[in-house]
Every structure is written in structure tokens, then in C-alpha cells.
Amino acid sequence: MTGANAQREENDAALVLFKELSEQFHKTPLSTVDPVLVRAWRPRTSLWQRMLPLFALQAGLKTEYSQVDGHQLHYWVGGLLSGPVVVLLHGFGSNKENWAFLTGKLAKKYRLLVPDLPGFGQSDFVPSADYHLAAQADRVAAWLKGLGIECAHFVGSSMGGAIAAQVAARHPSLVAKLCLMNAVGAPGKHLTQLESGLAAGVNYLAPTRAKDAWQLFAIVLHPQRRLLGLLFSLLMGGVMSQRKMPNDFLFCKLVDSFADTYRQLPSISAPTLVLWGDSDQVLDASCAEVFCERITGAKAMVLPAVGHLPMLEVPGITARVLHDFWRAN
User: Where is the AB hydrolase-1 domain (predicted)?
Assistant: First the structure.
């Protein structure tokens, strides 16, 4: 790094903010994860896991497996075999099933690849592995290259958006067009419920008890989708609380990756759409402006009465927006 670049970084308010956030986070109990317990953790069968075949049917896709950097990676594949390839990357503490409502609306025109990211869902969690976002991006790139995919449209939700952005920056030839959906990697102007909780030592994205999952869905979904949130909290509360140990470990790596992702944004050359819900209480909608400032030519669209998960909340609108973006010159 040149002296001028170093000076610019030192004066970049966002990087200063991310450094402060990381330091504050690591002073809270949330960052104290017992490595012995992390190594001893194993997934258990839950109601949610028994439901997974039904979600695959809903999605209209089949499940496949790949070995990537010491992980068995589970993913959905399907859609139009000859169509443009679309890769969908889920957010923190989530899984490929987050895309089940959207995939059926894309499958007639696109070949879909939807992974459980390493460490999440049915894919392996390896305590000794590097789970910073750059390492995750490299795993995604290696997985696609192993499948013979040379170029694809990427859509990333929240943490998956940061990983998709890192893929676009680190492996530019692999990304045709990029959609960052309520993505991690840029600071917002307003404090969200998630950020307020983190400051108080509570991570709503990693519930301790099954019954606390309703708080998570009350934050990530717009209030109009309370019934949907209640349904998912009943289905997923058990597995979310059982995965708290690895999720706490993985969240530390996410926090430590904010600044690196932000630095990478100007390196992105793929046409980029920044898609956000106006009622997001995980990452403030003002983050979209920063992404557009950092990525040359990026355009933002803010969806009204939508929270953190447009693909779950308004899958029809989300599919139309993506289709228009992909077919535009």
C-alpha cells in the first residue's frame, strides 16, 4: 500500500467506524467463544432438518454435494439447464432454504445454484477453518470452478452479499452481474435494532433459546409478515438455538471482515444492483448509498414495506427486479 493510500484509509470515516465497532464488539461477552466447546460441537436432528426435503420440493431443485477446501458443501441445483447461471448466497445464520420462495420464479429461465455456505446449514462447519469473508468468497469461487462454471450472475443476501462482493472483487471474470441485497459491507446512517442489541451484548441473529427465535424474525421481517415470522420461528427455533455455539464463532469472523469488504468495493467491475428493503432493522437502508458511492456505476433500488429479506417477503417483486436487471444491457 502506498503512503497516499494509507493516508486515505486512515482518514476514511467508514474504516474508522468499522475499527471502532470491531473493538467494541470484542469487549462484549459475545466475542468470548470457548474453542474447546466449538471443537466439540456437533449438529443434532431437529424439526427443521426433517422439513428440508419439503423445501427442496417447494424450490423445485435437487440437492447435490461437493468437496471444497475440507468442507462437504450441500447445494441446490436446477432450473433451465441451458439458461444463464445464477448463484444465490444466503445470509448469516441462515441456509439455502431462504431462497425457496424465489427459486420457482426464476427456474424457467435460469440455471440455479444455491449453496449452504461453508459453516452453515447442512454444509460442514470446520472449527479450524478460516471463515473470514474473503476466505468464504474463495471457497465459493473454487466450488463453481469445480463445477465448470466460468461466469454467473450473483445475488447475495446480507452476509451473502458481502461474500458475493468479495467474489466480484477477487475473481472478477466469474461475475457477470452482481446484486447486493441488504448486504453487509457498508456503514449506515441510523442505528438498527440489531446494532442496538449488539451494543447491549445481545446478538438477535444467534438466539440462545428456541423461543427467542421470534425476536429474530420480528427484526428481519417487515411487521406485515408477522405470521410468516411466527411460522419460521416455530420451525427453526430449535436448530437456531442448537447452532448458537458455531454461530457465535462465525459472527466474530463476520465482524472482523467488515473493513476488508468495504475496502474491496472499488475493485468491483461487474454491473451492480444494490437492492434494499426500506424497513430493514438489521442493516439500515442508507447503506445502499454507500455501496453506490464505492462501486462504479452501481444503482440502488429500495423496496417499500420490506425488511431484511426481500426474497422471502416479496419473492414475485424480487424476481421481476432481478430479471429486468439481468436482461438490461
Answer: 84-313
